[in-house]
């Protein structure tokens, strides 16, 4: 990779919270030249405060996506980082200019838009990577190795939770159904709570299930509890039970179960008060044994003093994933420069996860199990 020409990249929209970490990794990568960023005006203030003013030195700042692309014809690739509802428009802008794409974790929950993205990728021969960070983790890959080795016997069940705070306190669009899910659809008939919350925000564990067991979802049953946050318009507590086509029974909890700011106080890029803002645990149960994993475990916990003064450092969201992000970015560059396609997960592959998540929403609304239609 030493002789590879650096890639000129831009970040479009910069509204998704995961852009915060990906941007930092891009800036630290010598094979990347971050040319420009487009913001919503409010978001620039937020990200300058969280990342620091120096993070944007030498980077042109815009408040309009098209204006940014017109001003910098040297851009070769774009991070599609706006609100979920903006991704299709951002993708179209990239496709008509032949720009390669890193998409945030939920390209769209509208399957017609998803099919258009797949068509545009093929028509314009684009390299498209999807930011699903659990796929990068060595812990997850090791779990798959153990499962495939047969040491656990026949796998019977899998359960996982992906708890986090609700990001709406610093990214309000994530509590606007039209922006997070793309439409205003009630979770239950005649409900005042709408799709677009915790389930929408956590595709990771749905994706990991399919990755670990090389199987798609067959049937899902889901329930949403009353919200514990007053005023939130989208769901924050949800639980899913499902069955894969290979017979493994799974239970998933992607709830916004960690209160903010009472619990999740992130003081800078690396340091957060205990407990962690993001907590993920997984359990695989087989006929010969079981496997427990804490893939987002902190690098270490500073435990001196009373509990309100304890800190976790690193963990799943911050610096602990830097090596994996670097590999993700360098593979993206390699595919562009060598005209190959080695994306860990493609648009077509990820669509199967989106279909399972939409089926879970349908199950909540209908109050019964739903068959996932691929």
Strand content: 15-25%
Oligomer: single chain
Task: Give the fraction of residues assigned to helices.
Answer: 25-40%
The side-by-side strand order for the widest beta sheet comes to: 13-12-7-10-9-8-16
Order of helices and strands: EHEHEHEHEHEHEHHHEEEEEEEEHHE
- Rg of Cα set: 20 Å
Q: Tell me, briefly, the overall form.
A: globular
What structural class is derived from the secondary structure elements?
alpha/beta
The total beta strand count reads 16
N-to-C span: 38 Å
User: Uncertain regions: pLDDT < 50 for 5+ in a row?
Assistant: none
Q: Count of helices?
A: 11
Q: Could you outline the blueprint of secondary structure elements for this entry?
A:
Layout: E1 7-12, H1 18-28, E2 32-38, H2 41-51, E3 60-62, H3 65-71, E4 77-80, H4 87-97, E5 100-103, H5 111-124, E6 128-130, H6 138-149, E7 155-164, H7 177-180, H8 198-201, H9 204-213, E8 217-224, E9 238-244, E10 249-253, E11 271-273, E12 278-286, E13 290-293, E14 300-302, E15 311-313, H10 322-338, H11 347-366, E16 370-371
Parallel strand pairs: 1-2, 1-4, 2-3, 4-5, 5-6, 7-10
Antiparallel strand pairs: 7-12, 8-9, 8-16, 9-10, 11-15, 12-13, 14-15
Please provide a brief summary of the model.
This protein has 374 residues and is α/β, with parallel strands linked by helices.
Detailed description of the structure:
It is a single chain. The protein is of the alpha/beta class. It has eleven helices and 16 strands. It has helices spanning 18-28, 41-51, 65-71, 87-97, 111-124, 138-149, 177-180, 198-201, 204-213, 322-338, 347-366; strands spanning 7-12, 32-38, 60-62, 77-80, 100-103, 128-130, 155-164, 217-224, 238-244, 249-253, 271-273, 278-286, 290-293, 300-302, 311-313, 370-371. The strands form three sheets. It has a seven-stranded mixed sheet with strand order 13-12-7-10-9-8-16, covered by helices on one side. Strands 3-2-1-4-5-6 form a six-stranded parallel sheet, with helices on both faces. The protein has a three-stranded antiparallel sheet with strand order 11-15-14, with no helix packed on it. Helix 5 (111-124) links the parallel strand 5 (100-103) and strand 6 (128-130). Helix 6 runs parallel beside helix 9. The longest helix has 20 residues, at 347-366. The mean pLDDT is 89.
